[in-house]
Specification:
With about 120 residues, the chain is mainly β. The protein contains one helix and eleven strands; from the N terminus they run βββββββββαββ. The radius of gyration is 13 Å and the shape is globular.
Length: about 120
């Protein structure tokens, strides 16, 4: 497993942008698929985006497609979530997750999770 720490959350107006980062410990980061999830108050956790170990393979939830982009820098052990055109409904705690298997991390069954970072979008 890897240890994950998210950062970059905050308060932004609708239409604005934020970039979240997820820093991972360990020397095997490049062998992990990574994913972003979010959970709004009173709602279940939902999948946002995922990226394969090389960065060539990405997947997005329909609700964020065209607005959010995930990327990774294996040399820095970091995965990013660039969020543009933010909407109030994007308000949630955002978590990153890691697993060696892409479909496992997309399913939310990844073995490693961060503590989350709050994103609040005001209207």
């Amino acid at each position: 497993q890897v240890q994950l720490v998210e950062s970059g959350g905050g308060l932004v107006q609708a239409g604005g942008s934020l970039r979240l980062s997820c820093a991972a410990s360990g020397r095997t980061f490049s062998s992990y698929a990574m994913a972003w999830f979010r959970q709004a108050p009173g709602k279940e956790r939902e999948f946002v985006a995922a990226i394969g170990w090389s960065g060539a393979n990405t997947l997005y939830a329909d609700s964020v497609k065209g607005r959010f982009t995930t990327s990774r820098n294996n040399a820095k052990n970091t995965v990013y979530l660039q969020m543009n055109s933010l909407k109030p409904e994007d308000t949630a705690v955002y978590y990153c997750a890691a697993d060696p298997i892409f479909r496992t991390v997309v399913a939310g069954s990844g073995g490693s999770w961060g503590q989350g970072t709050q994103v609040t979008v005001s209207s």
